[in-house]
Structure formats: C-alpha cells, structure tokens
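dumping this here so i dont lose it again. seq + smiles for calcium ion
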Amino acid sequence: MKILDCNKLVFLLSVAAAYFGGGTGCHSSSSTDDTDSDSTHATDSDTACRQVLTATFRDFTEAHPDFERDDSGWGPAVGLILETLDEQRKPIYNKLRGDCKLNENGTCPSTDTWQNTPMWGYQDTDSDWQAEETFFTWYRNDDEIPRPISWFTGDEINRTIQKEILLEPNPDALNSLFFDSSLFLPLDTDEGFGPSPENTGENYLFTTEIHTQFDYVPKQVFTFRGDDDLWIFVNDKLALDLGGLHEPFEGTIDFDALAEDLEIVPGNRYPMDIFHAERHSPGSNFRIETNISCFVSVVPE
Ligand SMILES: [Ca+2]
Ligand SMILES: [Ca+2]
C-alpha cells in the first residue's frame, strides 16, 4: 500500500472555509495538493456528502498525566471504555480495566491476569491512563472542564483546533478512499501548545474527535491503522476498539458482518463517531481506508 509523505496530506481549515492548502501539519506546501483540494471542496457546503472528515483536535502536553506516559509496549487494550456513548456523544470510561491487552496477533492472551479487575486511579501506575477524571478531559474543551482539579497545576489543560482531513481516491483499489500518514502531526508547532514534548521539535500529544454520518450500503468496510488510542462508534455502538498506548495497530469494521450488533440496515444513514489520541512520541501513525464514498460532517456546536 502506498504511503504518502507529509506533504501529500492536506488539512483544510474549516474555521476559514475559503482557505485551502495551508496549516497542513507539513512544513512545506505542494501545488499538486492545492489543485486536488480546490476541485474537491471549493463548492461543497458543510452539510453535503463529502470526502472529508471534520476533526476537532485538542492539543495537550506531557503536563497531563495521560500523555507521554510510560508505555507497556503491547498492543491495544480492549474494553477501556464502555460500548456506548454518553448523552454528549463522548466515550465513557470503564471503571474496570477492560477485557485484555491484545498481543501482536490481535488476540487476547489466555494467561492475562488483569482482565476486568478494577482500576485504582492514581495507584495504578501501570494502567493505560491515570483516572476517570483525567480521561474526562480528552474530548472536552478546556472551558468545559470543571475546576478546581487536583492533578494538574497549569492554567490550560488543552487547546482546541478544528481542521479537516481529506480522504483521497486510493490508487491501489477501485472505489476506495484513503488517508495515510506515518507522521500524523496535524497541529503545527505554532498551534496549540507548540512543540510537545519540547525536545521533539514537533507537536505530538493531542486527541482527535470526529462526528460524521454515512449512508450504509452492503459490502462497506472501514479500516484504521495507527497509534495510539482509537475507538469508532457506529449507530452509537462500539464497532472498533484499539484503545490504549500501543504500537501502530490495524482493525477493520465489516459493516455487513456487524450489522445485527450495530442494528444497521442498508439504505439508511447512520452516525459514526471517531475518537483518537496521540499520546506518546515519537510515533504517530494514522491511516484510514474505506469504500464508503462520502461522509456528512456533524460539526459540534
Ligand atoms: Ca501537543
Ligand atoms: Ca504515538
């Protein structure tokens, strides 16, 4: 599969719809990309079916205890969140530790000893995150986070920036869209908190929140590969669970195979809610491949 370098990735600032080609997360521009993005997006409205995912990025630094945390080096931790969304369409912390930590084969080791044991918050230094109250901040704006908080000494926990991720036609597959970055740094060094960790010179440590809708037709699939945490909800039900700090990992939603569980029927439009976190430098991989032809953005109020 072709891997595009950073300059092939186009992020479009949704807060300035007339602006294309800048703020790409890359450090130089590409005239070819500018042509592609203009032809695809210049006349689209926010509610149209588009080959774009509108993303809310929240920038963090290692001052947050869940970011640049010691990494166990294993695969995803399944079951860190519950299998439904809360009333604000945010993921819900699982007070148990979840089902298992996947191995490199994508299976749960039978000898796993931490299955469904309670999380102990601050005492649990080996867990993938610190506590329910720290996870609460991942997908909420700084001014939505109640104060005071005991575990953070700075003024701002996060800074929110909205951008768009352009899905491009996949040159290796018919009727397929993709986005691929092996250095996924959508926030420039002059955005958010700037370089973090500072010694990397790049802006790692951020979360990605996407709310969209799609029209379900048979044989659709959606594949994600990346690090770190990634959860996808379809029709308000957890459809892909790659949570936790981990190496790049891949998972696929086969909508037909999951149709009964997700309670979806061809011919109808359903919500898809995507939650990602880049929580440890230096790796940041983010790859989407799907034969869903377009998405209807649901921009948060
Ligand atoms: Ca950061
Ligand atoms: Ca990472």
